[in-house]
Fold this sequence. Notes:
Layout: E1 13-16, E2 26-31, E3 35-40, E4 46-50, H1 51-57, E5 58-63
InterPro entries: DUF951
Protein name: DUF951 domain-containing protein
Organism: Lysinibacillus antri
Amino acid sequence: MIMEAKSFELNDVVEMKKQHPCGTNAWKVIRMGADIRIKCEGCGHSVMIPRRDFEKKIKKVLVRANEE
């Protein structure tokens, strides 16, 4: 079974499956590579996770960076 890769870009605001302990579910993609760094839109905490894990945990893109 091949899963389709969700498309996201730098500075997109994405929704993850689990919400952050601060109560927010919106994260901004601030670094892309083999690892993805995301920053919580609520408290500003940033987390670095492997791309493979990120692609499993992302729900949807809330705000596209190029549409702002």
